[in-house]
């Protein structure tokens, strides 16, 4: 027996409204009044007119609960909600609410439908949704089961700027025949005065900008070359590359004084020679142990010389091959310097390295220490035609040596790339050089160094991205080519710079690209890029608050402002004892924040710099990243994971967060969220700062380098890779 009453007094089997009597296990009471509290008592009858102790419960009637609520993330910032419409005629509306970051309650929907879309969410955060029914007077029924979701970014990767070209090795057999192999695996031949088209021959280098596909390229005659590829000897003849059939592997240096004679050595002290087409079994370079053999060169077949350095010291050692036997000996200690490269003409050799010069005349070795006042840096490659004509690479300089002395030092690719290889053939009285941009140079006694032209159109690599909208972005590749995004594909257009450039956009109608090395810039407006114009400083960092307020800073701590028509005269802003550039970040509308590595900071509001202030000493500002999401929110974070937050008037220091440890980039999308990447590891998950908390987000993006994120909105961000760009949605 089930009876209902108003909840006063003690329930009895004879009092209250009879709801049910029978043998079923459930009943529906259809005679209640809405929004009323009732007490129900349930008795079990013993069959003889008696009743057991009742079970009692109370409830308050309302409208029918909403059933079937579900929430599905449709993007990084939106969710789709569905539910079942209540059949209760007293229901006038369904109200859906969510609880988000920091417990904030937000009404998502109110109406009579069964679906809703929630937008404006923060990626990587948990949101909880609840649906309740209301009657016509606005009274809410009981809440149904809450559902939750975690918003996440979906990363789509596009091949944006594949590498092509990037010369890495070159050797000339005469003044009219050279072989060049680029780091994307293609070779080209100069025959006469023109270069052939690129022909694919090898796989691409893992790092085409720096790591050569082949090493120790040597060409004893036109149409005949040998080189080392992945530790094995390969040869070029009859118009193609093939294996030379050398024994074993791991060879690191090679020289061929003629088409029928070659020698190859390994760093661990083994050598093999080729006579005709036959290679000898590997033999030790004498009895010397505990050294690393760096290079080998020959005056003629059976008369070769090798150089080595101590495995644990900078001491230098020699090896001499006479016929088939090696002899070894000590050259100089670490105080004098260490040797890295050797090259021989038919009667002499020149070996160079760090602070030391060694000559071989016939078979006699002579050592001379090079004073810093006359010799700068360390030689990486040397090539000799005669005892009085050798060319060497010394960092950014190309040196000409004669009789053991430097007689000429030139910057062939000053500010525009770097020379990658030099070659002086034993015939012809000329030397050649090629840089990483595919430019070809020749030296003769009458003209000295002359640029002959660009034979290899070198492209590829992704620079810093700037976006006007989600469907219009730009970057400048590693060789100065402009690449644009149209919402579906990346397309390379013109060569707007000679070097990489930084692109920064503000609003939908303005972008600026800055080449810091050559101190030039271009502006995008009115649908096109303008002419190249000079800048007053070499920009180490750049940020724009508007098309008329961009700040650029240099390594001297100076700042200049772009006003919409040009750059202002640089003024001193922030300096540090490390002589590095301050960080600069300009949120939309400004003001801009500048932060030095010693913790000093200033703002620029559009007319002048504020007074210099200092972050609290508890914040280790050295090497900090900086980004501002709004005029009243900036984040600074250092390598250790310590971070600070700006609220518009003061900086607040926060304890170390290991998730923010060793970040490489930081970009604040808004006042609520920032996006960062790990710069010193292979981690491929974006790191987010959301309303005061750091988290490693999922899913991951393809780990192809870690450029600074460029976010058009909370939902759409672009992540620059080495040759690809990942886009979030």
From TrEMBL:
Keywords: Carbohydrate metabolism, Glycosidase, Hydrolase, Polysaccharide degradation
Gene3D superfamilies xref list: Immunoglobulins
Membrane-spanning ranges: none
Residue span(s) of domain Fibronectin type-III: 65-154
Key word Hydrolase present: yes
Top-level taxon of the source organism: Bacteria
PROSITE patterns the record matches: FN3
UniProt key word Cell cycle: no
Protein name: Fibronectin type-III domain-containing protein
Species assigned in the record: Terrabacter carboxydivorans
Organism classification: Bacteria, Bacillati, Actinomycetota, Actinomycetes, Micrococcales
